[in-house]
Amino acid sequence: MEIDHKVQPRYCVSGSEATSLNPIRLRSRTHLTTERTSCVPAGIRQALEAQIAAGKDNPLGRLTLGRILFSEDNFDGAIAHLSQALVLDPGMSAAYAALGKAYDRKGETERALDIFARGMVVAEKQGDLQAARQMEALHRRAQNSNG
Q: How many domains does the chain have?
């Protein structure tokens, strides 16, 4: 596989959440791996943090930062950004799913179950059946792992 060196430098994250990390379309990958990966353009985290610091807050930026922090196992940081995304846009189904995952990975299963349940209601009201089914599956998985 040839790597296009004209493409903006990227850093890659790996793991179970990597495929849902990046909300922007990417043209190439920088390396091969057996794990699912998604590459985020270098500097996007810093750019989003600077944008928020400048008072230009938005739910998509918060969602992206939350997913980046989640991929780094920084669950408290992810929860803070994902919660703020829901304050800015209470109808953002993706933020409910990501926030529930963060609480689940942090070990706060009851909070995760509550977030998934609320997210299912929001997604169904908006007609986002795919997101509702995803959260239903996440809810069931969290319930089963809780015993």
A: 1
